[in-house]
Amino acid sequence: VDFSLTAEDLAFKQRLQVWLRENLPVDWRARCPDEKSWVAFQKDWDHRLAIAGWTGIWWPREFGGSEATPTQRVIYEELMAEVDAPEGLGKAGRRLLAPAIMRYGTETQKRDLLSRMLSGEDNWCQGFSEPDAGSDLASLQTRAVRNGEDYLVNGSKIWTSYAQYCNKCFLLARTDPNAEKHAGLTLLLLDMNQPGVDVRPIQQITGSTGFCQVFFTDATVPFSATLGGEGCGWEVSSYLLTHERGAAQVFARLIRVEQHLRAYAARALEAEGEEVGVARLSTEIAAARLLAYRILNTQIAGGEPGPLGSIAKLYWSEAWQRLALQGLLVAGEQGLTEVSEANDPATLADLFLYSRWATVSSGTSEVQRNIVAKRVLKLPQSG
Ligand SMILES: Cc1cc2nc3c(=O)[nH]c(=O)nc-3n(C[C@H](O)[C@H](O)[C@H](O)COP(=O)(O)OP(=O)(O)OC[C@H]3O[C@@H](n4cnc5c(N)ncnc54)[C@H](O)[C@@H]3O)c2cc1C
């Protein structure tokens, strides 16, 4: 494998480095002591990225992107992670919904929704999971019933990331309760700013409120605001979810995990009296990075991450938890009591608590193991 960058990639990297130096205050976290200032900064950051043309750089030019290659996308995400840049509020829309609009959207949807997403006018949240439907997403119960020119939506979504800051939601709802469970679903593009939508932030073990439960009571969605048509929700959402586990996200997550671990856990790991803890940290991160390179190679060749994405996700998420736990055990009582309640981890205890999401979000570890068992190891299914 050739790990070196082309002249074009290097020029891309330098351009972004210069822009970041000029635009991202190194003390941005200190400038955001509370949620209000944190949200304002995220919005401002999204706006700056959009004006400079960095938002959606991997999108096709016809939709306002600049067709960055998979390698440049990795460079972009890695640099953003290295400088600890804000992740912004509308990333579910840009990362997941946008490719689905490009494939399934009407011409009007492509023209209007993608440009509003790029400019930061619209921030989208993902309304898929429900209190009784997570891994088994197709069993969801939120109903959308035709009423004149609209659907009336009733039900509840949960774990909806940043729903309290988003003005739009891509929502998977059941439009035909009599059809087979995958066939009766439709992806709706819902306006959050209406009376039938009640957003309730959920406090997590870290103290922050990164996601919400959202209740819909006769919320309306016009017929024209379905993506891919009625009854096609499963196909559209399956396509959309394939964009959750690309190489760029894995590299970026690894850098953020490594930086946090080095900042908060390395001292504790070194206190083991030998270098073993720190060496383990480096080895685990290096192994995960090699998995991410395999995904990148596949993507450069025009392929999808497929089950490789599951293997990488399984590995980095569990490695993160192992290392955070190890750091905490070594740090002892002091490590346990320092909880900052910030939106991002700022202490060892935060890091440990925060790492819990990793084996649940984007498919739990058990679900990833099922995928690997079925699609890589070809194990027979029981039952
Ligand atoms: C940080 C974070 C952000 C999220 N953001 C969003 C969001 O923006 N929008 C959204 O819609 N959702 C979001 N989610 C929800 C996430 O998609 C679900 O939590 C996830 O799909 C798991 O569903 P569940 O929580 O209902 O658990 P369940 O599916 O009920 O699983 C419970 C347990 O059973 C196990 N299990 C389930 N099925 C199987 C099986 N077939 N074989 C073996 N074991 C199984 C699971 O592994 C788990 O241990 C987010 C979650 C997190 C942690």
Give a short summary of the structure:
With 383 residues, the protein is α+β, with helices and mostly antiparallel strands. The chain is 48% helix and 14% strand.
Radius of gyration, in angstroms, nearest whole number = 21 Å
Using DSSP, what is the number of strands? 8
Helix content: 40-55%
The small-molecule ligands in this entry are: flavin-adenine dinucleotide
> What are the secondary-structure elements, in order, as H or E?
HHHHHEEEEEEEEHHHHHHHH
Multimeric organization: single chain
Helices and strands in order:
Layout: H1 7-23, H2 35-52, H3 70-82, H4 91-104, H5 107-119, E1 124-127, E2 143-147, E3 150-161, E4 168-174, E5 185-191, E6 197-202, E7 211-222, E8 226-227, H6 233-241, H7 247-264, H8 266-270, H9 276-300, H10 306-331, H11 333-337, H12 348-354, H13 365-376
Parallel strand pairs: 1-4
Antiparallel strand pairs: 2-3, 3-7, 4-5, 5-8, 6-7
Bound molecules: flavin-adenine dinucleotide (FAD).
Would you give an account of this structure?
The strands form two sheets. Strands 1-4-5-8 form a four-stranded mixed β-sheet. The chain has 383 residues and is an alpha+beta fold. It has helices at residues 7-23, 35-52, 70-82, 91-104, 107-119, 233-241, 247-264, 266-270, 276-300, 306-331, 333-337, 348-354, 365-376; strands spanning 124-127, 143-147, 150-161, 168-174, 185-191, 197-202, 211-222, 226-227. Flavin-adenine dinucleotide binds next to strand 1, strand 3 and helix 13.
